[in-house]
Amino acid sequence: MNPKEFIEKLNDVRGLMTQENYFDAIQILDKLKKTEKNSGYDYNYDVIHQLYQLDSNCRSVYNQQIILNHLKNISDKKKSISFEELNQELKDKYNLNLNDQILRREVELLILRNKLYCKIDKDTIILKSVPQ
């Protein structure tokens, strides 16, 4: 893939992210990372930086989307959940394997973005209400 095509694919990823289609965006990003490693092209540093920045951001919001949807689904049944229990449920139900620090960070980002209304008390998320 030549550099122009590579940049076009990065722009496709941006469009998918704007549409909140993170799963498809991640698929393209994974292909671009393989291309970057295996191709004979010496891509511009700024382009590669954009690739990995988009990858990090996209995976983060994808994780947040899954976490938020899961918390919406359980908020009627549970008033609180430990990070450990949440992590296990995410692994079991969505095959989402996050380390404890990343899970906590994603929940904190949801709170900061006003997507999740809850309180964190040590290692427990106290669910107030999750916007539907």
- Could you tell me the strand content as a percent range? 5-15%
- CATH third-tier fold name: Arc Repressor Mutant, subunit A
Instruction: Report the strand count.
Output: 3
The Cα radius of gyration reads: 17 Å
Q: How far is the first residue's CA from the last residue's CA?
A: 42 Å
| Biggest sheet architecture | 3 strands, antiparallel
CATH architecture annotation name: Orthogonal Bundle
Describe this protein's structure:
With 132 residues, this protein is mainly alpha-helical. The protein has a single domain (3-129), classed as Arc Repressor Mutant, subunit A, CATH 1.10.10. Helix content is 67%, strand content 11%. The protein has five helices and three strands, in the order H-H-H-E-H-H-E-E. Strands 1-3-2 form a three-stranded antiparallel sheet. Strand 2 and strand 3 form a beta hairpin. Helix 1 packs antiparallel against helix 2 and helix 3 crosses helix 5. The longest helix has 30 residues, at 45-74. The protein is elongated. The N and C termini lie far apart (42 Å). The relative contact order is 0.12.
